[in-house]
Amino acid sequence: MALQTSKALNKLKSLTFVTLGGGCIFSALCINQSNEKFYEEVLMPVTRLLPPEFSHKAAVWACKNKLLGQSRADDGILKCNFFGSTLKNPIGIAAGFDKHAEAVEGLSQLGFGFIEIGSVTPEPQPGQPKPRVFRLVADEAIINRYGFNSEGHRVVYERLTAVRESGQFSGILGVNLGKNKDSTSAKQDYVKGVQIFGPIADYLVINISSPNTPGLRDLQGKKDLQELLEAVIQARNQLLVNNNVPILLKLAPDLTKQDIKDIVAVINKKSCKVDGLIISNTTVSRQDLKDSQLALENGGLSGAPLRSKSTRLVAQIYYQTGGKIPIIGVGGIATGEDAFEKLEAGASYLQLYTSFIYHGPPVVNKIKRELVDILNKKGYNSISQVVGCNYKKYLSE
């Protein structure tokens, strides 16, 4: 009897190991092949059981170690010009995901047309106390108050230099610049960022629109903005290497009409003329959120609730600038239709963040596939034909 029991237990152990092993192999294959159904029904619901910041770090780690597979080749209709370079598609990963430039190569394999890292501050700083990231699952949104947690210029510069020298990355790389919380001169912080990263970046972003650094958004005011941009652009022009690196300005979605007019007036000045805009950062608005309890948390809100607000600002800025300044549209993009709306509102390029967190790597190919279908059905031959073609539709939304 004891012998029979022992044999039965051994068989049960073997069956358990085989089942677990088979499950692990199946999961690994699904992850490697970016199986949309597996991500939506299994993997992403599991990650949402983990603390948000831990999940974020785990996702960066997985990208860094290239565990998430590779993307398919893009449809030619998605190819577009990007400040003199060519993108295979107009969809990038927004700053905030890979803050410290740890996963550039891995992210490039997931199908993004360009990668933006940061925000990076001159000196290392820990950011705000934890917890500082919150999932509003019912709203498909995130509230974060990271507060420019950064490993600093030196560490990030060394990583990016190693990426460039490795020969494993040939894509478009942007560096999002921030200021230290206790800095005595925001202007000098951004100038330092231009001097350090200008020679190795494909574009630089002046981020003065995060709601999580006290006083930062004040730099969007007319006088402060003019002084900042004059200093930044002068620093760029004086670089010994890559002194034409594009400078982009990232704006908040919570601007008034007068704010918009003032900003446009500044960037139209020759001494302040940026090469592009990123619209938009996270919002401090909490309008119409389903998760009323988490909505009380301080920080910037991203995801689906930001979509219309950011698209409206894209259209307003496109109109105010006469469509002469390229815009990267970001905020609530999770489908091909979302992407198309941003394009026809006036964006030339797009970025994802929150939808990548909620749906995983398959969302990149999904959005591209759906966007290609929309372009074909509507008779467009290129992305450039869509940009701003229907901006008036979004001006009053």
Commentary on this structure:
- This protein has 397 residues and is an alpha/beta fold.
- It has a single domain, classed as Aldolase class I (TIM Barrel, Alpha-Beta Barrel).
- It is built from 12 helices and 13 strands.
- The chain has helices at residues 2-32, 36-47, 52-64, 104-108, 153-166, 186-197, 222-237, 257-267, 307-320, 336-345, 354-359, 362-377, and strands spanning 80-82, 85-87, 91-93, 114-120, 133-136, 141-144, 172-177, 203-207, 247-251, 276-279, 300-303, 327-330, 349-352.
- The chain has an 8-stranded parallel barrel with strand order 3-4-7-8-9-10-12-13, surrounded by 4 helices. A 3-stranded antiparallel sheet has the order 5-6-11, with no helix packed on it.
- Helix 6 (186-197) packs parallel to helix 7 (222-237).
- The chain is globular and about 70 Å long.
- The chain starts with a helix and ends in a 20-residue tail after the last helix.
- The model is unreliable at 15-30 (pLDDT under 50).
- GO terms for molecular function: dihydroorotate dehydrogenase (quinone) activity.
- It is an enzyme of class 1 (oxidoreductase).
- Its main location: mitochondrion.
- This is Dihydroorotate dehydrogenase (quinone), mitochondrial.
- It is a single-pass membrane protein.
